[in-house]
Design a protein that fits this description.
seven-stranded parallel beta sheet, KR_dom, SDR_fam, oxidoreductase, SDR family NAD(P)-dependent oxidoreductase, alpha/beta
């Protein structure tokens, strides 16, 4: 990972990341570890090798808890376990998501419920679980990952874009409700970040060229490009930002 800005208040902070063992999430875990944070993360697949590698490369060992975030009691249990290990969570990064492609006419009720459960329901209940500890700690920061997909009006995954839009609404409501407790809640909307999954499934040359043509900045986004904005939103450098949606997409969409 290239050098990033240092945020002294993240040193020793208790951080919880969903989906922190692969894709963008793995870079987020590494980014917080390099800040000196106490990082716990969940994921469905075993991440023992990643944990060992992070300890070797950063000198800071994360806590991995294997968990399917759609199992809300298991997610709540993981958050409790992280709290016992690292103290009250003061930074929550809701990163895990699934943008499985689908068309409207093929969606049945089971698929709809599955998509909402991973892409927005788990976010809400993770927020709910960390807020009492943040209150006790005197504040905290929640970063909810969304996407520019719904802003672009993209077809091909309507259940996913519905959840993305819902994340923004939830973010703004929680920011209003818990602002008096000094709990900040912001959304981060990446553009097309070329994770290995994206490269394997959808990033064919024509699609890449077409998307790059839409960007103002003519470089494809990599997972590391999302780390610094997340660190900023997590840290006191953004202490008066809440209820906002930060877009990091190379200049595809324009907001405001």
């Amino acid at each position: 990972m290239s050098a990033t800005a240092i945020y002294p208040d993240l040193d020793g902070a208790s951080v919880f990341i969903t989906g922190g063992g692969s894709g963008i999430g793995a870079d987020l875990t590494e980014g917080f570890l390099r800040q000196g944070a106490k990082v716990a993360f969940v994921g469905r697949s075993d991440a023992s090798d990643f944990v060992d590698r992070m300890e070797t490369e950063t000198g800071n060992r994360p806590l991995f808890i294997q968990c399917d975030i759609t199992d809300i009691p298991a997610l709540q249990s993981a958050i409790n376990q992280a709290t016992e290990a690292h103290g009250p969570i003061t930074v929550l990064v809701n990163n895990a998501a699934n943008d499985k492609r689908h068309s409207t006419l093929e969606v049945d009720e089971a698929f709809w419920d599955w998509s909402q459960s991973i892409n927005v329901k788990a976010y809400f209940f993770a927020c709910q679980a960390v807020i009492p500890g943040m209150k006790e700690a005197g504040g905290g920061s929640i970063v909810n990952f969304s996407s520019i997909s719904y802003m672009m009006g993209n077809a091909g995954y309507p259940a996913y874009t519905t959840a993305n839009s819902g994340i923004n609404g939830m973010t703004r409501s929680l920011a209003r409700e818990f602002g008096p407790d000094r709990i900040r809640v912001n959304a981060l909307a990446p553009g097309w970040v070329l994770t290995q999954k994206q490269l394997d499934l959808w990033a064919d040359p024509d699609s890449l060229a077409a998307h790059l043509d839409r960007q103002c900045l003519k470089d494809h986004l990599k997972p590391v490009d999302i780390v610094e904005p997340t660190l900023f939103l997590a840290s006191k450098a953004s202490r008066m930002m809440t209820g906002q949606a930060m877009v990091v997409d190379g200049g595809v969409v324009v907001t405001g």
